[in-house]
Amino acid sequence: MVTGVVRARAVAATVVDPELPMLTLADLGVIRGIDVDGDAVKVTITPTYSGCPALDAMRDDLHAALTKAGFTHVEVRTVLSPPWSTDWISDEGRRKLAEHGIAPPGRVEPRTSGPVPLTLVSPFDVVRCPRCGSPTTEEISRFGPTACTALRRCPVCREPFEHMKEI
User: Fold this and answer.
1) Rounded to an integer, what distance in angstroms lies between the CA atom of residue 111 and that of residue 131?
2) pLDDT, tens digit, for every residue of 56-71?
3) What is the pLDDT of residues 150-160, one digit of tens each?
4) Strands of 149-153's sheet in order across
5) Cα 113 from chain centroid?
6) CA 16 from chain center: how many Å?
């Protein structure tokens, strides 16, 4: 017999990210916890950043999927601490990003408490082209179509691509 938590996790794991629809919220690592009591479920999520414009859509999509699966009381909570990190993206999520032409982020160092340092330049010198694998890519713009991506181009295959920024 499948427990309620396992069933709720399986349902929540199918919900796709509104801005990066090749990834599920589970791939992206925004689902932080799921608690079930009978037919009531509470899902805790951490958005990629506090001002994420897709947050309402994520909540609504989780609520709809879990309600459709038979949970009669669904609560989606948002927590901002600890802040989301690109390190939370699963290996499967990183593979899907590259498969869809988006260079996955590099790994970041563990966070310390206190102020978050502001860096205005890319902390990583090598971003491989997701199309040809060349390590000699260049940043076109630090700001891409979503807040979490930058625009780059590859001088080898001459293709532009997005790079998910390390956070």
Assistant:
1) 31
2) 999 999 999 999 999 9
3) 999 999 999 99
4) 102-103, 160-164, 149-153, 138-141
5) 22
6) 10
